[in-house]
Amino acid sequence: MPKKNNGKFSGSGNQEEPPVEQTVRWVPLVGALVGVAILTAGMACLYLVMRTVGLENGGSCVSGGPYEIAPGHECEDGVFALGYGGAFGLIAGFLLLLWSSHRYGGPLVVTSVSGMGWSSLFGGLGGSFLSIGSEMPDASDVGSEFTTLGIVFLVMASLGLAVVFGPIPYSMRSQRLDYPKPTPFAWLAWFASVAIGIVIGFVALELARSIFE
Protein backbone atom coordinates (compact mmCIF):
# COMPACT_ATOMS: atom_id res chain seq x y z
CA MET A 1 0.00 0.00 0.00
CA PRO A 2 1.56 3.39 -0.94
CA LYS A 3 2.47 5.57 2.03
CA LYS A 4 1.27 9.16 2.14
CA ASN A 5 3.83 11.77 3.26
CA ASN A 6 2.78 15.45 3.47
CA GLY A 7 0.15 14.95 0.83
CA LYS A 8 2.51 12.97 -1.47
CA PHE A 9 2.51 9.21 -2.00
CA SER A 10 6.01 7.86 -1.66
CA GLY A 11 5.63 4.61 -3.52
CA SER A 12 5.22 0.96 -2.56
CA GLY A 13 5.98 -0.45 0.89
CA ASN A 14 7.25 1.66 3.75
CA GLN A 15 10.13 3.27 1.86
CA GLU A 16 9.72 7.06 1.62
CA GLU A 17 10.82 9.05 -1.40
CA PRO A 18 13.58 11.54 -0.46
CA PRO A 19 13.02 15.28 -1.02
CA VAL A 20 14.06 16.62 -4.40
CA GLU A 21 17.42 18.39 -4.23
CA GLN A 22 17.83 21.46 -6.43
CA THR A 23 21.29 21.72 -7.94
CA VAL A 24 22.92 24.65 -9.73
CA ARG A 25 21.05 25.83 -12.84
CA TRP A 26 23.20 28.24 -14.80
CA VAL A 27 20.64 30.07 -16.96
CA PRO A 28 18.46 31.39 -14.08
CA LEU A 29 21.65 32.00 -12.10
CA VAL A 30 22.88 34.36 -14.83
CA GLY A 31 19.45 36.00 -14.87
CA ALA A 32 19.72 36.62 -11.13
CA LEU A 33 23.19 38.13 -11.61
CA VAL A 34 21.94 40.52 -14.32
CA GLY A 35 18.91 41.44 -12.22
CA VAL A 36 21.08 42.29 -9.22
CA ALA A 37 23.41 44.38 -11.42
CA ILE A 38 20.48 46.43 -12.77
CA LEU A 39 18.97 46.75 -9.29
CA THR A 40 22.30 47.92 -7.84
CA ALA A 41 22.78 50.54 -10.54
CA GLY A 42 19.23 51.78 -9.96
CA MET A 43 19.79 52.02 -6.20
CA ALA A 44 23.04 53.91 -6.76
CA CYS A 45 21.27 56.38 -9.06
CA LEU A 46 18.63 57.08 -6.42
CA TYR A 47 21.41 57.51 -3.84
CA LEU A 48 23.06 60.16 -6.03
CA VAL A 49 19.73 61.96 -6.47
CA MET A 50 19.15 61.95 -2.71
CA ARG A 51 22.59 63.39 -2.03
CA THR A 52 22.21 66.08 -4.68
CA VAL A 53 18.75 67.17 -3.58
CA GLY A 54 19.49 66.78 0.13
CA LEU A 55 22.84 68.57 0.27
CA GLU A 56 22.49 71.16 -2.49
CA ASN A 57 18.76 71.90 -2.45
CA GLY A 58 17.82 71.45 1.21
CA GLY A 59 15.78 68.31 0.63
CA SER A 60 13.57 69.45 -2.25
CA CYS A 61 13.87 71.04 -5.66
CA VAL A 62 11.58 72.34 -8.40
CA SER A 63 12.31 72.75 -12.08
CA GLY A 64 10.09 74.68 -14.48
CA GLY A 65 6.33 74.94 -14.39
CA PRO A 66 4.13 77.72 -13.00
CA TYR A 67 5.61 77.57 -9.50
CA GLU A 68 7.97 80.19 -8.15
CA ILE A 69 11.40 78.65 -7.55
CA ALA A 70 13.17 79.75 -4.40
CA PRO A 71 16.88 80.52 -4.80
CA GLY A 72 18.97 77.40 -4.26
CA HIS A 73 16.07 75.06 -4.93
CA GLU A 74 16.40 74.78 -8.70
CA CYS A 75 16.95 71.16 -9.74
CA GLU A 76 20.34 70.28 -11.14
CA ASP A 77 20.55 69.16 -14.77
CA GLY A 78 19.87 65.45 -15.12
CA VAL A 79 18.33 64.96 -11.67
CA PHE A 80 14.96 63.91 -13.05
CA ALA A 81 16.48 61.57 -15.63
CA LEU A 82 18.70 60.02 -12.97
CA GLY A 83 15.79 59.66 -10.55
CA TYR A 84 13.35 58.11 -13.02
CA GLY A 85 16.08 55.92 -14.50
CA GLY A 86 17.08 54.73 -11.03
CA ALA A 87 13.48 53.91 -10.08
CA PHE A 88 12.96 51.98 -13.33
CA GLY A 89 16.21 50.07 -12.87
CA LEU A 90 15.32 49.26 -9.26
CA ILE A 91 11.93 47.80 -10.21
CA ALA A 92 13.06 46.03 -13.39
CA GLY A 93 16.13 44.54 -11.73
CA PHE A 94 14.16 43.26 -8.76
CA LEU A 95 11.50 41.66 -10.99
CA LEU A 96 14.20 39.93 -13.06
CA LEU A 97 15.92 38.75 -9.88
CA LEU A 98 12.61 37.48 -8.49
CA TRP A 99 11.69 35.60 -11.66
CA SER A 100 15.16 34.09 -12.11
CA SER A 101 15.36 33.04 -8.46
CA HIS A 102 11.98 31.32 -8.70
CA ARG A 103 13.20 29.39 -11.74
CA TYR A 104 16.44 28.62 -9.91
CA GLY A 105 15.28 27.37 -6.52
CA GLY A 106 11.54 27.78 -6.15
CA PRO A 107 9.77 29.33 -3.15
CA LEU A 108 12.70 29.03 -0.73
CA VAL A 109 15.04 31.16 -2.83
CA VAL A 110 12.21 33.60 -3.61
CA THR A 111 11.72 34.06 0.14
CA SER A 112 15.38 35.04 0.43
CA VAL A 113 14.95 37.46 -2.47
CA SER A 114 12.02 39.14 -0.72
CA GLY A 115 14.11 39.71 2.40
CA MET A 116 17.02 40.89 0.27
CA GLY A 117 14.82 43.43 -1.49
CA TRP A 118 13.56 44.75 1.84
CA SER A 119 17.06 44.98 3.34
CA SER A 120 18.54 46.57 0.21
CA LEU A 121 15.87 49.23 -0.07
CA PHE A 122 15.82 50.29 3.59
CA GLY A 123 19.57 49.76 4.01
CA GLY A 124 20.37 51.90 0.98
CA LEU A 125 17.99 54.65 2.04
CA GLY A 126 19.24 54.49 5.64
CA GLY A 127 22.85 54.79 4.55
CA SER A 128 21.93 57.72 2.32
CA PHE A 129 20.13 59.52 5.14
CA LEU A 130 23.05 59.03 7.52
CA SER A 131 25.57 60.20 4.94
CA ILE A 132 23.57 63.34 4.15
CA GLY A 133 22.95 64.10 7.83
CA SER A 134 26.64 63.76 8.68
CA GLU A 135 27.63 66.33 6.05
CA MET A 136 25.16 68.97 7.21
CA PRO A 137 26.02 71.52 9.92
CA ASP A 138 25.75 70.17 13.48
CA ALA A 139 23.09 72.71 14.43
CA SER A 140 20.95 71.94 11.40
CA ASP A 141 17.50 70.58 12.24
CA VAL A 142 17.31 69.03 8.78
CA GLY A 143 20.58 67.19 9.40
CA SER A 144 19.30 65.67 12.65
CA GLU A 145 16.11 64.59 10.89
CA PHE A 146 18.14 62.85 8.19
CA THR A 147 20.25 61.11 10.86
CA THR A 148 17.19 59.91 12.77
CA LEU A 149 15.59 58.58 9.60
CA GLY A 150 18.84 56.82 8.71
CA ILE A 151 18.96 54.97 12.03
CA VAL A 152 15.30 53.93 11.79
CA PHE A 153 15.73 52.68 8.23
CA LEU A 154 18.88 50.69 9.10
CA VAL A 155 17.04 48.98 11.95
CA MET A 156 14.25 48.06 9.55
CA ALA A 157 16.82 46.76 7.06
CA SER A 158 18.40 44.51 9.68
CA LEU A 159 15.03 42.83 10.29
CA GLY A 160 14.98 41.68 6.67
CA LEU A 161 18.25 39.78 7.07
CA ALA A 162 16.44 37.06 9.01
CA VAL A 163 14.25 36.52 5.95
CA VAL A 164 17.32 36.44 3.69
CA PHE A 165 19.18 33.69 5.56
CA GLY A 166 16.28 31.95 7.31
CA PRO A 167 15.35 29.65 4.37
CA ILE A 168 18.86 28.15 4.27
CA PRO A 169 18.70 26.08 7.51
CA TYR A 170 15.04 25.32 6.75
CA SER A 171 15.94 23.88 3.35
CA MET A 172 18.67 21.76 4.95
CA ARG A 173 16.16 20.19 7.38
CA SER A 174 12.98 20.15 5.32
CA GLN A 175 11.58 16.80 4.24
CA ARG A 176 8.74 18.25 2.19
CA LEU A 177 8.39 16.67 -1.22
CA ASP A 178 6.59 19.60 -2.84
CA TYR A 179 9.44 22.09 -2.27
CA PRO A 180 12.75 21.92 -4.14
CA LYS A 181 15.60 21.62 -1.66
CA PRO A 182 18.63 23.67 -2.83
CA THR A 183 21.91 22.00 -2.03
CA PRO A 184 24.55 23.94 -0.02
CA PHE A 185 26.53 24.50 -3.22
CA ALA A 186 23.37 25.79 -4.97
CA TRP A 187 22.86 28.33 -2.18
CA LEU A 188 26.53 29.32 -2.35
CA ALA A 189 26.35 29.79 -6.13
CA TRP A 190 23.24 31.94 -5.80
CA PHE A 191 24.79 34.22 -3.17
CA ALA A 192 27.97 34.42 -5.27
CA SER A 193 25.93 35.55 -8.29
CA VAL A 194 24.31 38.23 -6.11
CA ALA A 195 27.71 39.47 -4.91
CA ILE A 196 29.12 39.55 -8.46
CA GLY A 197 25.99 41.33 -9.69
CA ILE A 198 26.43 44.05 -7.07
CA VAL A 199 30.03 44.66 -8.20
CA ILE A 200 29.01 44.73 -11.88
CA GLY A 201 26.20 47.20 -11.13
CA PHE A 202 28.55 49.67 -9.43
CA VAL A 203 31.21 49.29 -12.14
CA ALA A 204 28.69 49.78 -14.96
CA LEU A 205 27.30 52.92 -13.31
CA GLU A 206 30.78 54.40 -12.82
CA LEU A 207 31.66 53.69 -16.45
CA ALA A 208 28.44 55.35 -17.62
CA ARG A 209 29.14 58.41 -15.47
CA SER A 210 32.69 58.71 -16.80
CA ILE A 211 31.42 58.56 -20.39
CA PHE A 212 28.63 61.12 -20.06
CA GLU A 213 30.37 63.60 -17.76
Record keyword descriptors for this entry.
213 residues, mainly alpha, two-stranded parallel sheet, 4 strands, 69% helix, disordered N terminus
How would you characterize this protein structure?
The protein has 213 residues and is mainly α. The protein has one domain. 69% of the residues lie in helices and 4% in strands. The protein has helices spanning 26-56, 79-134, 141-165, 167-173, 184-212; strands at 4-5, 8-9, 21-22, 181-182. The strands form 2 sheets. The protein has a two-stranded antiparallel sheet with strand order 1-2. A two-stranded parallel sheet has the order 3-4. Helix 2 (79-134) crosses helix 3. It is elongated. The N and C termini lie far apart (73 Å).
